[in-house]
Automatic annotation (TrEMBL):
Residues 8-161 form the N-acetylmuramoyl-L-alanine amidase domain. It catalyses: Hydrolyzes the link between N-acetylmuramoyl residues and L-amino acid residues in certain cell-wall glycopeptides. One of its GO terms (molecular function) is N-acetylmuramoyl-L-alanine amidase activity. Keywords: Cell wall biogenesis/degradation, Coiled coil, Hydrolase. Gene3D superfamilies: Peptidoglycan recognition protein-like. It holds the Pfam family Amidase_2. This is N-acetylmuramoyl-L-alanine amidase. Its EC number is 3.5.1.28. It comes from the Bacteria. InterPro entries: Amidase/PGRP_sf, Amidase_domain, NAMLAA_amidase_2. GO terms for biological process: cell wall organization; peptidoglycan catabolic process; peptidoglycan turnover. Residues 297-360 form a coiled coil.
Length: 363
């Protein structure tokens, strides 16, 4: 999903070593535009009351990010009397939560979400849960999703106000059953970079492909091959061979095509076309054989082009000698009989050479 960035510094850097286990739903109690709310957060930097949230969702569905998910946004204040009993009050709640503000013009947060707002909220929550393996249920001591009221029922009992909780959890359940865009167990995704168990990182089309493919968590990265030379390539959807990369994993490979048009950044602009193929020692062997054969074909093509050039030169020499002989015969003795015989012999030799060259490549 598209997320506009309006960052601020109102956050605990690196969460003081903690990881997010909860998503907290908020209502802004004023305002309808996400960018305006994000700019307000930014304006409080360095003030006596700096505030923020990781994300703001406008009534038009626009999503703005204000803080990295790796940091604890200044969003939840402190625990008040009557908070849910499973919270660990020895830990600052901002360091274990990701907070999402929903623009609501009413000061009591009584507005219901617009359809666009709800769609963006559900998608964002789904992606965050997948990135951080946050439980997709009502929050408890092990993590989950809840509202600001869970932390501060005294001052934030109406935050977020009306929210379609049942629809949210139904949507999350449906997504889980479909295994859509799931982060493999033991891997981590921060929204732009996916990291496997061994620390290998993936972005762009490769990240998207893995998240959408019910990827085996043990199918970790091994290495890559750059395919940008003659005889190497990635098969594109239209049947052409283009340049690209092949990323090898424990049990599969991902081929990533570059744009075939060399006018576009030297032919190295990613097309976002990826192909997943199962792989093993046999397929690796086959890939090497195909690569070697492609090189041989390129070499033979080069030799053939050189031979054609040589054949053309021979033909030009034959033509020149034939013209010379013809002119000599027309001048009635311009050449001695021996000279004419020598020319005929040269022509015969050149013809023989041309025939031998042709026969060599017919084989």
């Amino acid at each position: 999903m598209h997320i506009l960035q309006i960052p601020n510094t109102n956050a605990f850097a690196n969460r003081n070593g903690y990881k997010p286990r909860y998503i907290i739903i908020h209502g802004t109690a004023g305002g309808s535009n996400a960018e305006a709310i994000a700019q307000y957060f930014k304006s409080t930097e360095g003030s006596s009351n700096p505030v923020s949230a990781h994300y703001v969702i406008g009534q038009d569905g626009e999503v703005v990010q204000c803080n990295s998910e790796n940091d604890g946004a200044y969003a939840n204040g402190v625990f008040s009397a009557g908070h849910d009993p499973w919270w660990n009050t020895s830990i600052n709640p901002n360091n274990v939560t990701i907070s999402i503000e929903h623009c609501k013009p009413a000061e009591d947060n009584s507005n219901v979400l617009t359809d666009a707002q709800k769609a963006s909220s559900f998608q964002l929550i789904t992606e965050i849960c997948q990135r951080w393996n946050i439980p997709t249920r009502w929050a408890d001591g092990d993590g989950g999703i809840t509202g600001h009221f869970s932390i501060d029922p005294v001052n934030r009992s109406r935050c977020p106000g009306p929210y379609p909780w049942d629809e949210l959890f139904a949507a999350l359940t449906s997504t889980q059953k479909g295994n859509s865009s799931m982060v493999p167990n033991g891997w981590h995704d921060d929204g732009t970079t996916l990291t496997d168990k061994n620390g290998a990182t993936f972005t762009g089309a490769v990240r998207t492909t893995i998240l959408a493919s019910n990827w085996d968590s043990n199918n970790t990265y091994i290495g890559a091959r750059r395919l940008d030379q003659p005889g190497h390539g990635v098969l594109l959807e239209d049947g052409r061979w283009g340049s690209g990369d092949i990323l090898f994993f424990a049990s599969s490979a991902i081929a990533v095509a570059w744009h075939p048009d060399p006018a576009l950044t030297g032919g190295q602009s990613l097309t976002n076309d990826t192909i997943i193929v199962p792989i093993g020692n046999e397929l690796l062997w086959a890939h090497d054989i195909i690569t070697a054969n492609n090189r041989q074909i390129i070499d033979l093509q080069t030799q053939l082009n050189q031979a054609n050039t040589h054949a053309t030169d021979l033909q030009n020499q034959i033509t020149a000698l034939q013209q010379q002989l013809s002119q000599a015969q027309q001048t009635n003795g311009g050449l001695t009989q021996q000279q004419q015989q020598d020319l005929k012999s040269k022509i015969a030799t050149l013809v023989s050479d041309a025939q031998a060259l042709q026969a060599e490549f017919i084989k």
